[in-house]
Design brief:
The protein has 5 helices and 5 strands. It is an alpha+beta fold and 132 residues long. The strands form 2 sheets. A 3-stranded antiparallel β-sheet has the order 1-5-4. It catalyses: apo-[ACP] + CoA = holo-[ACP] + adenosine 3',5'-bisphosphate + H(+).
Length: 132
Amino acid sequence: MVYGIGTDICDIRRIAAVLARRGDRFAEKVLGPTELKVFHYRRAKVEARGVAYLATRFSAKESFSKAIGLGLHTPMQWRDCETLNEPSGKPFIRLHGALADWFAARDLSAHVSLTDETDYATSFVVVETRTP
């Protein structure tokens, strides 16, 4: 059964401007530990790929927070919600800390879809209950 749905669109140019002003502090505030490693790797190869990666992850966190109905309020913390990829490329959500405990206590599962183009990144998250 569907618990919640969230969607978001993010202007990649806005993320690039924040990175230009604040440097990596913004990425370090938003990305979880594994996401941060991927961000640095992609950005080192091609700046635009790193920025697009950050934008898709920022968008996914916004969508996830909407789908669970908490917004960005405790236990939802930026770094405790990571969107990673299976070896096949399929994205999935990994939770940490109090957010993971909150999510598990409600027996929820999440599905995420991401996409980006030159100027925009979008995400869509469906959270459902595992038990009827």
